[in-house]
Amino acid sequence: VWDKCLNELKKSIKPHEYKTWIKDLEFISVSGNRLTLKAKDNITKEFVEKRYLPLIQNVVGKNFGKPLKISIVLQEKASKGVMLELNLSTKKAPKIESNLNPKYTFENFIVGSSNQFAHAAAIAVAENPGKAYNPLFIYGGVGLGKTHLMQAIGNFVKEHFPSKTVVYVTTESFMNDLIDSLRNDRMTQFREKYRTVDILLIDDIQFISGKDRTQIEFFHTFNALYDSGKQVVLTSDRPPKDIPMLTERLRSRFEWGLIADIQPPDFETRIAILRRKAEDEGIEVSDEVLKLIASRIKSNIRQLEGTLLKLKAKAQLEGKPLDAELVRTTLSIEPGNSTSVSESFSETLPVDEIKKAVSQIMNVKIEDLDGNSRKKQIALARQIAMYLCKKLGNYSYPKIAAAFNRSDHTTAMHAYNRIKELREKDAQIQSLLYEIEGVLTRSVDSA
Ligand code: ADP
Ligand code: MG
């Protein structure tokens, strides 16, 4: 078919131009709605792209019977011998590392009201990659199962559609890969790698915030995949609209498909997750113990699992049974019935932790947060600290005011409202808060 196209092109282009630029273009593949050609050098590639792309596209569209996007590459990866014109995608030569952890599956993902929407969306995408929702954007707090669900999609596809290529990367390693490729002049390989997969899973996309070069490259990766009907799945700790310093065109693409959130698990789901984990680890525990743990740890499943393992280790070390008493002393829960326990305990962040993080990141003395200085930076830091006390610690306004040496609780309320408003419209404040919250939620996570 390509030869036919060449013949037709020959007729519509001046002979010497045809000979110089077009004649030696080599047909590589048609995959999805993209036709790939190889040029012998960069000059040819650039010239053809500038001058002849619409013409080639037109001719190709007619002869292949469907509109195709044209890519011109310098080096083809596909094997040179057999060249199936259509459907090269099923004959992919290079083996790509998926980076999937087989332990993350749908089978061992416990579904509850907090995650059932995201779970259903993930199943739909796994069963119908590229066709159900594209992209699928999953967001939610730390340790709530985003990575697990995303990798479950990948593992499912690998099992049920073995010919499809799946790549999982964190945003950070995508970025590092990009930097490496730019430095070592390997951008062609980089693009090959990310633009030819069937399913691209990118974890923690919020970290692309402010990374301009990565955003540009990812924009093109996204378009290439999307245009050829390939599936993109993204996770983030927040919805697209709350990711600061993200170009509008990427933000809007993140919103093209389906956005699904994961909420903290309710009590029943926490129990179910603990029970499952205990079974998997061969830990024998009573319901009472599970309830006690579930009432103490509420908003992070990683921590929930970690606590169970910690308790198991402690029980072994001290030669004691893993019973309610051990849980109580370890997690310092007073005796009493577990429902009242679940009411009275939460993982509150100490005010001092918040002050410390704010003072470090904003370079303001801790004493100044409690003082009366009206210097701009200090006043802002104080308001941010109060805001975070409300947002992350859920302290009452009178308590917050008191913790900052103030008698009037409306001060804390004003601070909260002001920062909340600023956060919505000021990218700098957004990223500042993002950084401080990052530090604070990490310290809670590893506590
Ligand atoms: P995130 O990426 O949202 O920070 P992860 O996917 O890493 O969270 O999940 C943290 C831990 O909790 C993992 O070990 C994961 O297997 C487990 N986990 C999360 N959600 C569930 C669930 N619904 N059922 C079973 N395990 C879960
Ligand atoms: Mg994760």
TrEMBL record:
- Segments forming domain AAA+ ATPase: 132-260
Spans annotated as Domain I, interacts with DnaA modulators: 1-78
Q: Which Pfam families match?
A: Bac_DnaA, Bac_DnaA_C, DnaA_N
What's the main place this protein lives?
A: cytoplasm
Q: Where is this region: Domain IV, binds dsDNA?
A: 316-447
Q: Listed GO molecular functions?
A: ATP binding; DNA replication origin binding; lipid binding
Q: Where does it localize?
A: Cytoplasm
Amino-acid positions noted as binding ATP in the UniProt annotation, renumbered to this chain: G143, G145, K146, T147
Can you quote a single GO CC term?
cytoplasm
Task: Provide the GO biological process annotations.
Answer: DNA replication initiation; regulation of DNA replication
The family database entries (CDD domains) matched by this protein are listed as: AAA, Bac_DnaA_C
Which Gene3D superfamilies does this entry report, sorted A to Z? 1.10.1750.10, 1.10.8.60, 3.30.300.180, P-loop containing nucleotide triphosphate hydrolases
Q: Keywords on this record?
A: ATP-binding, Cytoplasm, DNA replication, DNA-binding, Lipid-binding, Nucleotide-binding
- InterPro entries, A to Z: AAA+_ATPase (IPR003593), Chromosome_initiator_DnaA (IPR001957), Chromosome_initiator_DnaA-like (IPR020591), DnaA_C (IPR013159), DnaA_dom (IPR013317), DnaA_N_dom (IPR024633), DnaA_N_sf (IPR038454), P-loop_NTPase (IPR027417)
Segments forming domain Chromosomal replication initiator DnaA C-terminal: 350-419
Region annotated Domain III, AAA+ region sits at: 99-315
**Stated role:** Plays an essential role in the initiation and regulation of chromosomal replication. ATP-DnaA binds to the origin of replication (oriC) to initiate formation of the DNA replication initiation complex once per cell cycle. Binds the DnaA box (a 9 base pair repeat at the origin) and separates the double-stranded (ds)DNA. Forms a right-handed helical filament on oriC DNA; dsDNA binds to the exterior of the filament while single-stranded (ss)DNA is stabiized in the filament's interior.
Domain writeup: Domain I is involved in oligomerization and binding regulators, domain II is flexibile and of varying length in different bacteria, domain III forms the AAA+ region, while domain IV binds dsDNA.
Family, according to the entry, reads as follows: Belongs to the DnaA family.
Summary of subunit composition and partner proteins: Oligomerizes as a right-handed, spiral filament on DNA at oriC.
What name appears for this protein in its UniProt entry?
Chromosomal replication initiator protein DnaA
What taxonomic classification does the UniProt entry list for its organism?
A: Bacteria, Pseudomonadati, Aquificota, Aquificia, Desulfurobacteriales
User: What gene is this protein a product of?
Assistant: dnaA
